[in-house]
């Protein structure tokens, strides 16, 4: 483990956050049942039963996507990370949005246990908010999309090249937001909410 | 000098050398084992004796330097060369010794190569001499490849413990074996000469491999290198019945595999011949009829005598070997065989060892398996028959008489009256268990479960017949066909027993029905059946017992008592040996005595359930739904099987892990088939192993499992499966968990649980379908809630997300929001059951007017569309001034006069309020949505739902009209009063709380403000702040408020507006505070406010009041609107 990266509270919390995001995103994917449940195996994380993808590629996708965000999260460039479920026509059906708020000026030490305790509540809340979610039609796809506050310089790091502009469409109307869980601790604030197309969204 | 020491140490061998040289030839100067001596030998072979000695002396004195100077690069190559030379020497000696004409048989020990370990009597040199003389070999150094026998008199404990690594699996024999063999002038079996320390371990049970025809071969040439089975027969170990064949598998043992066979070539020839014959017979037999695994027994030699004339001469001395070849010769030899009929399959397929399809055949020929799986078959045949019902008044129990025997002998009239028993095996050993006996046999006291030998002792002329599963199946099917024909309520217990509910049978007299059924069964199947008729299953079963054989018995209710009183308790079902013994101790023999005891004391003595059962049964009470016969309980899958599996506890003997693997594969196949047969898949897998207890000998029951320790390991996988491959992988994995010697395994079973039905397709789909169902209902429920809450609570605005957009309309954007507004309304009308009523007062008319004409037109269009769609379902109204008339028209078009007129009027009033531009904290608009189909009036059900400000705007007469129409409300007056003058109050209170710092400080500013307020509800709020632990979380305060039910939350009229505006401001500021970081908190607060509406309408209004703001800031921060669902308790 690279100690240097984790020396700053932002680095520390970003590392924890990234780890958490990987688990949380996998949990969301599992929750939505987009893959057969056999594609997941049960693991323990933060003393909770979570699911981990068995398929190496799925696992790798989530892992690399989230870990690719690490430097940007550290710098506070990532505003939101969304898990978007969409149909073939690229029109989203449901979006799980993690809204990040990394306090760049925070200087004290991060209490890892406290942070993990807060993050843990997300994983608890996530399965129980399942009734709020929509039923996905079959042949659904999904992606991880990160919303940057500013586009990173391509030259700054290799990681940013991994990211491509998404071609998933936006809803034409303002979406309906259903909060799932929020937490605000220093230096990390995180909110998870669900976005659905508003009722007035024209059906394609 | 070191030379001297060496010499003196080897003085013994020295003398032997001289002996050898005398007896054979001078060049033969081999000594036994010392490295130095053998070096000597080598030298001696080429050089002079003295020179060799000198060399030897040299080497021993300065072995280091000698090594350095030696031509060998390392010790390994040196040893190779040395061994080679030793062999050459030995060969030379051997040839000379044979030439020298030792009289006796030259090659007793042909193929035998011994290694002498440690001190022996006779000495290793003498043994070597014997080997030389009689064609054997002698190894100075142990090698698994060259040595066939290890000779020693004694072994250290460490070598005993680790025999395998020491001996490499080779026989460890006492030196007397060599001597005795020489004396007998033939090679004796080494087994009796086994080292005592080892013999005790190895000999205590026959090796299973002994019972299979092995590829015997006379000499090593015939032995396939890796099959290399060594068959050694043994005659003298009388403790082993039928003889023991020791089979050792030496994969590496290629060149000198040699069979130590007492019988010599002649016997082997015969054996060969015989085996070929056997090989031919085996397939015929197994095809023939009973591929009976259970029953394979050793046939003793007398049987074989009759069969094979050529075998006779040697048979007496070759007992053990002969038994290898014993088997099912029933087709050929039944006449000759001493026992009446050997109905055995070949001995080949009777254990896990030799037979590839062991598992499959095992289950094919297992009676328990037949009974167990019979139920599945039955259920398939009669799928509709219900399996559980109460017998109200009349129950008929039909039981075929000694089914398993009767079916077999029905075509053999000569056996009809003779004692016959069914058993898988009729071997002279008689350790097979009788599974069923007919009545003549029962008269001799023969019972199921008895060993054949015991039964024969009681009845020497007992005829043993094998199973005939095909016939059983056929007869059972016929049996049930008949039962189902006569009664539609058949409850199957087993293949030969069933209960019929004849309460409402077509035939009035159950006795006559019983006789009809019995006759039919007898006619159709050739087997007799007995029937018992009584009021319940218990009594019917007992009646059948009385009726047997081939009779019927009716116990009318009034005779139940008499019948039971005389009945011995042992006859009651559920009372076995143990319980009967216990009862006997208490002097209870009959039900009469049992009845005397109270239920309580029975329960105290025998446990709750058993006591209860005893009490009930002794009174003929049977509360069970189903009859559960112990046999069925043990074997038949229940209605919903919890687990499915297969277990083999008979004939399981393994040599090595390959056998085990093979067996597991077959077991998996069987389990997979069963899973598929039941249409289920499982997630949890348990591998059970029966391990022979360390002190357990070979069980009495042939090939049984004996005393065992039961071990199990299980694993759960995420996805249910029934696939063989997966099962196999899992079982292999599970088996890996057992640290167990495969030779100790006596039984294995694989159990699959956590079953899921395959019919519902994949788990995920199932889950999703349920999910969709849930979600759709919940959505519906939510929608429903919306409707009801609209009508009930007077939440006019803000129920729907779109309202927020409208709220923003006045403040933020124009174009897109109007569009979304319209769109959402249209969408809402298209989808949902409720209709959005826009907060008109929030609309800036100026904005609308300033819209581009095409946008206005678009809105028009959309509202037109909305209205038309609503016409069919709902009444609606619109906020659009341009369209208000249309709306009225359309609304009027749909509904009845009075009701519909209100919304339109209200709309107009809203228009007025809009024009007047009332403050944005004002609430507004009237709910008018309700599905017409449900006939819910558009009128609010109570006045509380009416927006006072709107009401206020109405013309006097209309207002009264509405009020008259509304149900009476206790707070009508005050409400009206409060609402009739909102403007002044609001402005005042707004100023009071306008500062944006209500949540600043600790405690927050508002707490103090509220505390000093004259308004009751605000005081309560402040109090709640402290009670909830001084948190700055509004949700906890609201939560506290909600939980303290006794706190009065009524707001008096004069306080209303002040409180309202203060609370609005409080919540609003709180929302602003939290919007960035904690929308969850906001969400919870909104929901809590909704719930508090129950207590005071104030909160509902507060909630509605702040929603527009909230949605606006949501749009600003999150680009969306908060989902607001109304929470009803």
Protein described:
The complex is a heterodimer of chains A (204) and B (1129). Chain A is α+β, with helices and mostly antiparallel strands. Helices cover 29% and strands 28% of the residues of chain A. In chain A, the strands form two sheets. Chain A has a five-stranded antiparallel β-sheet with strand order 5-3-4-7-6. Chain A has a two-stranded antiparallel sheet with strand order 1-2. In chain A, a hairpin with a 3-residue loop joins strand 6 and strand 7. The radius of gyration of chain A is 17 Å and the shape is globular. The N terminus of chain A is likely disordered. Chain B has 1129 residues and is of the alpha/beta class. Chain B has 49 helices and 19 strands. In chain B, the strands form five sheets. Chain B has a five-stranded mixed β-sheet. In chain B, strand 13, helix 24 and strand 14 form a beta-alpha-beta unit. The termini of chain B are far apart. The N terminus of chain B is likely disordered. The chains are: A alpha+beta (204), B alpha/beta (1129). At the A-B interface, strand 1, strand 6 and strand 7 of A face helix 33, helix 34, helix 35, helix 48 and helix 49 of B.
Would you kindly provide a brief summary of this structure?
The complex is a heterodimer of chains A (204) and B (1129). Chain A contains four helices and seven strands, in the order H-E-E-H-H-E-E-H-E-E-E.
The largest β sheet of chain B comes out as: 5 strands, mixed
The gross shape of chain A turns out to be globular
Distance between the termini of chain B: 109 Å
β-strand amount of chain B? 5-15%
Strand order of the largest sheet of chain A: 5-3-4-7-6
The low-pLDDT segments of chain B are 1-67, 201-350, 384-391, 626-639, 760-845, 865-944, 967-994
Rounded mean pLDDT of chain A is 81
The span between the termini of chain A is: 48 Å
Largest sheet of chain A: 5 strands, antiparallel
Largest interface: chains, residues each: A-B, 39 and 44 residues
Query: Which spans of chain A have pLDDT < 50 for at least 5 consecutive residues?
Result: 1-6
What is the number of helical segments of chain B per DSSP (H or I, 4+ residues)? 49
What sequence of helices (H) and strands (E) makes up the elements of chain A?
A: HEEHHEEHEEE
